Amino acid sequence: MMANDEKHIAHISDLHFGAASDYAVNALIDDLETSKPDIVVITGDLTQAGRRKEFEAAREFLGALSAKKLIVPGNHDLPVINLWSRFITPYNRFERFLSGMINPVYTDEMLTIAGLNTARRAALDVNWSYGRISRTQIINAADYLDRAPSQNIKVIAAHHPFTKGPGRAGSRIVGRGREAMTAFADKGLDIALTGHVHHSSAKLYEIENRKLVMIQAGTATSVRTRQEPPAYNDIFASASGLTVQTRFLQGNKFTGGAENRFIRDKSGDWNEE
């Protein structure tokens, strides 16, 4: 049972409507409505190819969730087929159907979250799926973290990872990722939430003499699984402790799996419990 001084964050990612399992979608809605998180953070790829009908399905899913939501785009949320739309209005459907902001922010009495759009319409690379952060985004997010109430847990949420992971998707970190993490660590960042790799993990990350926690979500509902079944993260965060439980789809419901626990020391660094 959650303590009164904890915040419950449900971290989900890579739903891929258009290539989503109906029973996984229904099981995820049931699990989230039962656990009642304080906020659901979705780190991109809500659609498979950025089609209208996929965004309509994603919007229907979001409408079934009663919790507050913070959503950032993934590379699959840009139009894949219609190149005119991809280059001229790449985020139009995401903003119209799901969220009015591609770099959303959120603050309450315990949490400050800066969302970052790392999806790009094109890249100087044959693979356009790799993400990037602009220096303007870094400055704005760092400033938002810096202005957070001193007691707040500081979080950033982005689709593309800041550390390498398994498979081709995990072979490269987001462009300017280290520069961004250096700036965010300087402003007291505690947690980074990311997706894209379809693999769950929670681990320490040290930069500029600061230790923070990197949390990676698997794919919550897609049939495009890699190495693990559909999964999402339940995060319970307080000023002094952090528990990350990965919940996996087993049959027709999500059940609790591995847990990672972290504690914050007097210097503000996080360490494994």
Report on the architecture of this protein.
The protein is of the alpha/beta class and 273 residues long. The protein has one domain (7-272): Purple Acid Phosphatase, chain A, domain 2, CATH 3.60.21.10. It has 6 helices and 13 strands. The chain has helices at residues 22-35, 52-63, 83-88, 92-98, 135-146, 177-186; strands spanning 7-12, 39-43, 68-72, 105-107, 111-116, 153-158, 191-194, 201-207, 210-216, 231-237, 241-250, 253-264, 270-272. A 7-stranded mixed sheet has the order 3-2-1-10-11-12-13. A 6-stranded mixed sheet has the order 4-5-6-7-9-8.
Any idea what the shape is? globular
Number of strands: 13
Indicate the CATH architecture: 4-Layer Sandwich
CATH superfamily: Metallo-dependent phosphatases
* Terminal residue distance: 19 Å
Mean pLDDT: 91
Count of spatially separate domains: 1
Unreliable stretches covering 5 or more consecutive residues? none
Strand order within the widest beta sheet: 3-2-1-10-11-12-13
Rg computed from alpha carbons, rounded to a whole number of angstroms: 17 Å
Helix content: 10-25%
Main beta-sheet strand count, sense and barrel state: 7 strands, mixed
Beta percentage is: 25-35%
Strand pairing plus helix content: what structural class? alpha/beta
- CATH level 1 class label: Alpha Beta
Number of helices, counting only DSSP H or I runs of 4 residues or more: 6
- In the CATH hierarchy, the third-tier topology is known as Purple Acid Phosphatase, chain A, domain 2
What's the order of the H and E elements? EHEHEHHEEHEHEEEEEEE
